[in-house]
Amino acid sequence: MLVKSSEQIEALAVMKSLDGRVSFGEKEERYFRNWLSGALGEQMVEDGAACLDGYVARIHDLVIVEDRTCQIDALWIGSQTVYLLEVKHWDGVFTVDAQGFHVIVHDPLSQLERTKRMVERILKRMGVGLMVEARLIFTNPNMTLYGLSEEMPIVMPSQIERYFQKIRVAESPISEWQIRLGKKLAALHASRNPHQNLMAYSRESVRSGILCGVCRVPMSVRCRWKLACPKCGMVEKKADGFYRTQKELEILFPEIARKPVELRRWMGNVIDRKTVYNLMRKL
Predict the structure, then answer these.
(1) d(CA 110, CA 103)
(2) Residue 97 bridge partners (DSSP)
(3) Half-sphere exposure of 123 (CA within 13 A, CB side)
């Protein structure tokens, strides 16, 4: 059962829609890309774990303030075990050994162990004696990790589905007790939006037009019914580009997303007025 979903899913849709439409400085751009990558990984885990809804009480994106502020990507309550998951969507080549990750300032294994101890303290205060199983989940198939050994609490992309099935086999059908405990833990959530400043935008600051769905640069007209990306060469029908861009407008500025005049302006010069009105009839 899903007790608490990630608050980042809605923010992820906004950030994806802003990609290519706002100008960031180098620092903001790097933060934006890192956050987008992390949110995507967390969404993949939340969506993939739907198969466990009849077995564990699932809490996602839980922020707890104890001696420090701690964000828990996923906390699942089983009948005998609490599953603590830290999710990373890293891309590239990394090395790990018994001391942790090489050339990483904030070692995720050390962070995972600190978070595990905090969760154990909270459960003990609640009088709950469940074991806490902590895992570091990597979701990006383009990530390579050298030095990995079986005893490390790490789940690689190719192992995620198998790990979820292992949990399902180990657990009994979910009980009311698990749901109550899940809600009690979810109540500890400290509401916050650390991305509020990053997501601040206005109609004046956001680039309009139909952007390529791959590399997020403005599309150009290829022929009467098709658009093409000048950067990657992707070709799509004007209608597909229109509906994709209209969905982004619904997310960013829902108050104008169905106004023909505003929608025509938003599309730029690549779709004429008559075509915009014809396509809008199908919305």
Answers:
(1) 14
(2) 100
(3) 22
